[in-house]
């Protein structure tokens, strides 16, 4: 009977397993998971209450008018932007590919329009501020270096024209 030494193979498998286990935590957590998202609206929407159901209906393009009858203009970042993915998953409870399919179906069947895609968060803020009835989302910005109580993770921000009011 010959006895084969399996120790080198087992040692290599052990090293491979350790390497895989070390990679799992970083692969499972989005690289930029610490940023928070703000929903932003045009100045004309100061009084609109945005709950999850309304946000979902607005971003799926099922609701096309605000309660006052003004048209809704939805602005989004590109599908491959990590902020889009986080907003859709955490705030709307949906995946970006599901939203894209719904938007494409509406466009192709002629029953609706897809949101306007902007290239950057800066462009998002400019377009939402300048467009009546607009809504979008951006990475939460720090208001100032003053010591303030932490705000909730999700926040709706009214974009004012001119100077900011506290």
From TrEMBL:
Keyword terms, alphabetized: Signal
Signal peptide: 1-30
SUPFAM superfamilies according to UniProt: Periplasmic binding protein-like II (SSF53850)
Entry protein name: PBP domain-containing protein
Lineage: Bacteria, Pseudomonadati, Pseudomonadota, Gammaproteobacteria, Steroidobacterales
């Amino acid at each position: 009977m010959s006895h084969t030494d399996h120790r080198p193979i087992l040692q290599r498998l052990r090293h491979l397993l350790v390497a895989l286990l070390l990679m799992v935590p970083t692969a499972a957590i989005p690289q930029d998971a610490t940023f928070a998202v703000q929903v932003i609206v045009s100045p004309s929407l100061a009084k609109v209450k945005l709950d999850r159901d309304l946000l979902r209906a607005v971003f799926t393009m099922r609701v096309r008018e605000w309660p006052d009858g003004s048209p809704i203009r939805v602005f989004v970042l590109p599908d491959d932007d990590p902020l889009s993915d986080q907003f859709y998953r955490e705030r709307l409870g949906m995946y970006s590919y599901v939203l894209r399919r719904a938007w494409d179906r509406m466009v192709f069947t002629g029953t609706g329009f897809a949101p306007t895609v902007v290239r950057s968060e800066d462009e998002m803020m400019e377009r939402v501020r300048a467009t009546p009835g607009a809504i979008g989302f951006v990475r939460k910005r720090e208001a100032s270096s003053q010591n303030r109580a932490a705000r909730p993770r999700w926040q709706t921000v009214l974009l004012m024209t001119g100077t900011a009011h506290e």
